[in-house]
């Protein structure tokens, strides 16, 4: 990932928080012909590994056998920045964003008990904010059929890259103008990005 020094997010806590808050990621692999493939999947980061699953009919899991690292991309808040929000001129539009790229070696989880445990844990994590969380308590035959239709895997992480492009390098008044502009759009993701930019601005010397 192209990351100028001022945009580097190398704090492990920030990287892990982004992954926890944005678990719907993109898994990128390369097939035997060198062609890239991508799937959009829920992926959990825990204890230094990534846990995920995909439909068994999705042939991408077969790329794990080539021994190559895979890439998992987590995208955080992002948004368009209008130059009309800056005090300084001239200026051009840009896009601010946060992202984490995780590289690692995948392996399949084939033990039925482990597959069930990992899916139950994923459900518990996703349901944790609900007033009445749903639990994975299914009729045995139905549950077995569903689990048989997926491939469960984990990725041993070899490298993590983080990037936070949050108007670093702009004058404080320009950064504040962009923050105010984002908050004026009424979009939740713009507001989340504005909060990150405000925090970054407050931390500047």
What does this entry look like structurally?
It is built from 5 helices and 6 strands. By secondary structure, the protein is of the alpha+beta class. The chain has a single domain, classed as Electron Transport, Fmn-binding Protein, Chain A (Pnp Oxidase, Chain A, Roll). It has a 6-stranded antiparallel barrel, surrounded by 5 helices. The two termini are 27 Å apart. The model has no long low-confidence stretch (mean pLDDT 96).
Write out key terms for the chains shown:
single chain; 205 residues; alpha+beta; Pnp Oxidase, Chain A; six-stranded antiparallel β-barrel; 5 helices
Please render the helix and strand layout as text:
Layout: H1 12-21, E1 24-30, E2 36-46, E3 49-55, E4 70-81, E5 94-109, H2 112-127, H3 140-148, E6 150-165, H4 172-183, H5 188-203
Antiparallel strand pairs: 1-2, 1-4, 2-3, 3-6, 4-5, 5-6
Helix pairs in contact: 4-5
